[in-house]
Each structure stands twice: as structure tokens, then as C-alpha cells.
Specification:
Shape: elongated
Radius of gyration: 30 Å
Number of helices: 17
């Protein structure tokens, strides 16, 4: 192996070891601390500017070689566009991360900046142009290249950010992933990728000296966002330089743990109906802590998973498509079993809930259409009996058991609509009294009886009730109301 790679690694490693204590002291001096909280797993105030140490340590080997050797000039000249794009993107996300560490930002401004950084990187040529898999299928993504590249870069960035919830996990994942990217690209000629991977691995490993449990400094968003974006961009570059048809699959497997954790977080929060950016305590490392693992044991367990995934990703470097396809299937099954062990989802329930929510949304859209149609038909049908019949058709579709109109001017002449089945009141029966309004004010009331297993009105029913309250008696031409 070229000694230069080892020098890159060594300079970054030494810089991280030397510079991190200084950054920690500055964080304490200026009060840039991560405070304990209900979602946090640490108990003490801890500096959170560790990303600065990793950023400087990753950059330093390039500065040293640019000053003392001209070979790096030639390498950068050969690949200046992707190198500049990735460098600018990393600077942008590192900058917003520093701002968040000092001022604390909401998730959305950070996400917009990450998208901007991804677009800059895409503009300079780092992009997904061809998708392939071990099963022999390939797709030229054409105009989807831009959106897919942005999704990849932003996704990996936030996956590493979400993994930074327990001492040493994100930095350890970055070390394993950088090692795999180095292994992928070191056989290639005239590329900066193995040097960049070696520098990142050294910086992350040196930082781990202070970040491993019990940590005395945290990455902060400056570190986790920088690591994620750097790895995301470098994996795109590595897949371009690799001779393997399904090269992008290798970093996906190497980064499998944070990617799966991010996907689970999105599904979990969507299923609960909370904002995607809302933090919780249901990440993989939280699950291990709930099972009684200590911080150190939890992170070592996750290191073991990462080591296994890194080994599988490395194995794919030397396999043919057919064997790699079996490997992918096995990895998928292992993730499913691991999810069951952690108690994430009862898969039948989660898919049932997702299907139920989709059906509810479709029903709500249909009810919105039907209520608009009902309003238009009310404009043509000006008799009470005709409008009551039209409303009854919609009541039957919605599933209302019984509806009764009681008019103030005629208390003994109620209008009643009901299903053919007898009305049975249960604990889940809901009754609602709704005032009816005409041009001259209140005219009576509408009583609705609804029964369901949930005991609540279905999505979209409010639109039907609003139409009945505000439009049913408007413009009637018969004298039943007088």
C-alpha cells in the first residue's frame, strides 16, 4: 500500500488527538454546552463543538501536502470539479452546524441549507447517473439524477446526525464507512477518494479518544452534519471510480445501521402523526438502553453490527452479481429479525395502520367531493323533502345510523332518516346535535347517531355536517318552515 495513505491517516489522527482538547476547553470557556434533558442520555453538561476538531483534522493532511509536495496538485487538477463540489457542500453544512451548536436552530432551516449544499455538489458533477443492483438490473435515471442525488446526500447527512445520540456511535460509524470507501477505491488510479477516506478515518478515530463513553466532548451538529455529508458525497465519488456494477450498494450496506434507523424514525413519526423533525427516544441506541444495556455495552454492540456490515460490504467487493444478490437478501432478513428483537414494530400492525390511514385519506377526499356536489344539488332542489332525500343518500354512504330534523316551528313534525338495520346503542355510539340555520337565523336542530368501533366520527364527516348546518335550510321554497 502507498505510504502516502498512511501519512494522510496519521496526520489526521494526530491532529484530532491534539486539537480536540483545545476545542473542548473553548466550548467550556464560552458555554457552548449540551445540557441534560428528557431525550438526552447523558447526565452532565458536555461541550458540543467536537465537529470543529474533526473538520480541521480532515483538512490538515491536504494543507500539509499542498505545501510540501506537488503530487496533490496533479490529483486535484484531474478531479477539481467533484473535489470542489464536495468541499463547498461540506463547508456549507459545517457552517450551519456551527450556527446550530451555538444558537440552536429548528430542523427546517437546517434542512433547507442541506438541500442547498446538495445542489451545489450536484452542480459540480457529483451525482447519481445510473442505478444498478446485484440482480442484473440497471436504470438510467436521466432527469431523476438531481432529486435522487439530493435525497441521497441529505438522507445520509441526517442518518449520521440521528446516530449521534450516544457516546461514540456516529464517529465510530464514520470510521467504519471511511475504511470501506478506502478499500473500494485504493486500487484505482488518479483519484483523490482514498486519500479523502483515509483522512476522514484518521480524524474520526482520533476524535473517538475523547468521544467514547463516557464522552468528554460531543460532535454537535457541526460534526454529525459534516461527517454525514462528507460520507454521502465521497460514496457517490467512490461508486463512480469503482469497477463494480452495483458500487453504490456497498456504501449503503456499510452505512446500513444509520440508514435503517433514519427510515424507522420517519415511518414511526409518520404513523404517530407527529412532525418528521420531532425528536424522540425510540432510536436503536435508545432501545438497547431500555433493554438494560449500559452506554458502553450499547455502543460496543452497535460497533459489532457496523463491523459485520462493513465486512459484508467488503465481501461484495470480491463477489459476482449472483452471490451479492443472496447477500443482500440475507442482510434484509437480519434487519427484520433485529427489528423484532428491539420491539420496533409489530409488522402486521404497522402495515395495517398504514393501509387504514390511506383508506381514511381516500374516504375524506371522496366526502369532500360529495359535499361539494351536495351543495350544487341543493341550489337546484328547493323543496324540503327533496333535500332530505339527497342528504339521506350521503348519510348512507358515510355510515350514519340515524338522522332526525326537529324544526322549532313544528315540534311535532320531525323528519327521520335511518338505515334499514335497527339502531343499536352501544358504548361506541356517538350522538351529535347540530343547529340548522336559515337566512333569518336558527330554525331547528339535526340529531346524528353514529356508531363505530372507534367511537368517533370518520375523517371528512365534518364537511358533511357543515353543509347540513349552513346550506340545508337556505333558499327553501315550501312552507314547512313557516
Amino acid at each position: 500500500m502507498d505510504l502516502t495513505y498512511l501519512i494522510f491517516f496519521g496526520i489526521a489522527f494526530g491532529c484530532a488527538l491534539a486539537f480536540t482538547p483545545l476545542v473542548r476547553a473553548l466550548g467550556i470557556r464560552f458555554g457552548i454546552l449540551d445540557l441534560p434533558g428528557k431525550r438526552k442520555v447523558h447526565q452532565n453538561e458536555t461541550p458540543r463543538l467536537g465537529g470543529t476538531a474533526i473538520f480541521v483534522a480532515t483538512l490538515l493532511p491536504f494543507l500539509v501536502f499542498l505545501l510540501f509536495d506537488d503530487f496533490l496538485y496533479r490529483e486535484i487538477e484531474n478531479s477539481w470539479e467533484p473535489f470542489l463540489g464536495l468541499t463547498l457542500g461540506c463547508l456549507i453544512v459545517f457552517g450551519i452546524g456551527i450556527w446550530d451548536d451555538i444558537r440552536r436552530l429548528s430542523p427546517w432551516p437546517k434542512l433547507l441549507v442541506e438541500i442547498g449544499a446538495a445542489l451545489v455538489t450536484y452542480y459540480f458533477g457529483l451525482r447519481i447517473g445510473l442505478l444498478s443492483n446485484p440482480f442484473g438490473l440497471q436504470w438510467d435515471v436521466s432527469w431523476l439524477s438531481g432529486p435522487l442525488t439530493v435525497i441521497w446526500l441529505v438522507g445520509i447527512t441526517n442518518a449520521i446526525n440521528l446516530a449521534d445520540g450516544i457516546d461514540g456511535l456516529a464517529a465510530g460509524i464514520a470510521t467504519f464507512a471511511a475504511a470501506i470507501l478506502f478499500t473500494m477505491t485504493v486500487p484505482t488510479a488518479y483519484t483523490l477518494v482514498p486519500y479523502m477516506a483515509a483522512a476522514l478515518a484518521g480524524a474520526a478515530l482520533g476524535f473517538l479518544r475523547y468521544n467514547f463513553s463516557p464522552a468528554t466532548i460531543f460532535l454537535g451538529d457541526s460534526g454529525s452534519l459534516f461527517l454525514g455529508f462528507y460520507l454521502g458525497g465521497l460514496s457517490l465519488w467512490a461508486s463512480e471510480k469503482s469497477a463494480i456494477a452495483f458500487a453504490l450498494l456497498i456504501p449503503i450496506i456499510a452505512l446500513g445501521l444509520p440508514i435503517i434507523d433514519m427510515i424507522y424514525a420517519i415511518i414511526r413519526r409518520w404513523n404517530r402523526g407527529v412532525p418528521i423533525g420531532q425528536a424522540d427516544r425510540d432510536h436503536i441506541h435508545h432501545k438497547l438502553l431500555e433493554k438494560g444495556y449500559s452506554h458502553r455495552k450499547a455502543v460496543l454492540t452497535l460497533y459489532g453490527v457496523n463491523f459485520l456490515l462493513a465486512g459484508i460490504a467488503g465481501l461484495l467487493l470480491f463477489t459476482r452479481n449472483s452471490f451479492a444478490a443472496y447477500v443482500v437478501v440475507v442482510v434484509g432478513l437480519v434487519f427484520i429479525l433485529g427489528s423484532r428483537f428491539l420491539g420496533y414494530f409489530r409488522f402486521s400492525r404497522i402495515f395495517r395502520d398504514m393501509i387504514g390511514k390511506w383508506k381514511d385519506s381516500q374516504k375524506a377526499k371522496y366526502l369532500a367531493f360529495r359535499t361539494r356536489l351536495l351543495c350544487r344539488t341543493f341550489e337546484k332542489e328547493r323543496t324540503l323533502a327533496g333535500r332530505w332525500r339527497l342528504a339521506g343518500d350521503l348519510f348512507a354512504e358515510v355510515g350514519i345510523q340515524q338522522a332526525t330534523i326537529a324544526l322549532a316551528a313544528h315540534p311535532n313534525r320531525s323528519l327521520v332518516w335511518s338505515t334499514s338495520a335497527p339502531v343499536q346503542e352501544t358504548d361506541k355510539t356517538v350522538k351529535l346535535n347540530l343547529p340548522l340555520t336559515g337566512e333569518k337565523g336558527p330554525l331547528g336542530k339535526l340529531e346524528i347517531i353514529w356508531s363505530s368501533s372507534q367511537g368517533v366520527f370518520p375523517p371528512g364527516i365534518s364537511r358533511v355536517l357543515n353543509v347540513m348546518a349552513n346550506e340545508f335550510c337556505r333558499g327553501l321554497q315550501d312552507n314547512f318552515l313557516e
